[in-house]
Amino acid sequence: MPLALFGLSYKTAPLELRERVAFDSAALLHSLPGLTCVPHVREAVVVSTCHRTEIYTELTDMDAAKQHAMAWLADERGIPRRTFNAHVYHRFDADAARHLFRVTAGLDSMVIGEAQILGQVREAFKVATRAQTVRAKLDTTFRQALKVGKRARTETSINRYASSLGSVAADLAEQALGSLQQKRILVLGAGEMAKLAVTHLVANGATQLVVANRSLHGAERLEQLPGVTTARLAELARLMPEVDILIASTGSSSYLVTPEMLRGRNRPLVIVDLGLPRDVDPAVGDLPGARLYNVDQLDQALARGRHGQEEDVAQVERIIDTELLAWQQWQASQGAIPTIAALQARAAEVREGELRKALAKLAHLSERDRQEVAALAGAVSAKLLHLPMQRLKRADLGSGYLDVARDLFGLEGPQATEDDEAATLEP
């Protein structure tokens, strides 16, 4: 069954569209079963970040699966398909696997080697596993993709320039206003991105910093840092008038900061909106004295400033080539599953039949001795099957080899079940 990818990313879609098709983990956990509710989509994982929303599936009908996936995305996000159809790209089989491997390695990011994408792909895989939309093919593919991402970061220096958006946001605010001392800073949200920004701000001299979150529980660890206090997001209107720097990263589904909240200000304000969907109304950037930056602008600035990664990229591409070959060999070996399962079943049938006849003649044996005889029969069977099964798994032998094997052993029984897939073949 083919592996397929349908997606939108910063390369094909503007920020305004990407935020409309983005999912958080809770929404995905609820929505994913609807993606695999038709026969032609067997399994699915959705990777949704500020830079991409990508649907990975195993399918039985390419056209029907794409139509269903696009309809699902439109329905779940409440937008017409015509809004995003022209921005969707697709990849199949090895091309889809290579794309995923490049994503986890940080090669498909706006900032090469970015640190967060590996964790985001891992989270997407976990959510799909919990939603029970992962079976053999995507399980193997995503585990191998995560292996690629880990190898890229441990065997090369691909992430040596990969600053986090949180730390870059802090640097940008400092550059715009000079010293962070005596500047009133408000950070909206207490997630990973916000925590990185707060830590970086404090390390660079910030002394008046408020972290506003829906729940104080999520922000209390940050309050241990010097100069940091916490507040609830409900207090935002009270906090905004005195703010010099605002960094927002909440994942809210609607704008938290609007032009009305800032009218009448007579001093500069630097706003960095890391949210997707965005936390700050874009119209805020038109107000006098306000500088508004979004995630794409930050990444573009980062990408322009990074050079000298060519050798690291080449090393990562070699890792990807090696792992992709292993993935292709595993996928090709899937055609051997029915034959291997039938061979195992036939061997078990013969072993059990002969064992029953032998033990019937050896009634004088103790129970322990009977177990030893059964174990011996199993060991002989396993030894005899080992080499034939290994050769049947080889991707370069072709279907004719499998036909010969089935004829030679008289294997005309039922085909393998999905449980057989897990039992007989590993990547």
In words, what does this structure look like?
This protein is an alpha/beta fold. It has 15 helices and ten strands. The chain has helices at 15-18, 25-31, 62-77, 94-105, 117-130, 136-155, 165-177, 192-203, 236-239, 295-304, 310-333, 337-361, 367-392, 398-409, 418-424; strands at 3-9, 41-48, 52-59, 89-92, 184-188, 208-213, 228-232, 245-248, 269-273, 290-294. It has a six-stranded parallel sheet with strand order 7-6-5-8-9-10. A hairpin with a 3-residue loop joins strand 2 (41-48) and strand 3 (52-59). Helix 4 runs antiparallel to helix 11 (310-333), helix 5 runs antiparallel to helix 6 (136-155) and helix 12 packs antiparallel against helix 13. Mean pLDDT is 85; it is low at 413-427.
SSE topology sketch:
Elements (H helix, E strand, L loop, with lengths): L2 E7 L5 H4 L6 H7 L9 E8 L3 E8 L2 H16 L11 E4 L1 H12 L11 H14 L5 H20 L9 H13 L6 E5 L3 H12 L4 E6 L14 E5 L3 H4 L5 E4 L20 E5 L16 E5 H10 L5 H24 L3 H25 L5 H26 L5 H12 L8 H7 L3
Concise account of the structure shown:
With 427 residues, this protein is α/β, with parallel strands linked by helices.
Mean pLDDT: 85
Please trace the helix and strand order, writing H or E for each element: EHHEEHEHHHHEHEEHEEEHHHHHH
Question: What's the assembly state of these chains?
Answer: single chain
Q: Please report the number of helical segments.
A: 15
Strands across the major sheet, in which order? 7-6-5-8-9-10
Helicity, as a percent range: 40-55%
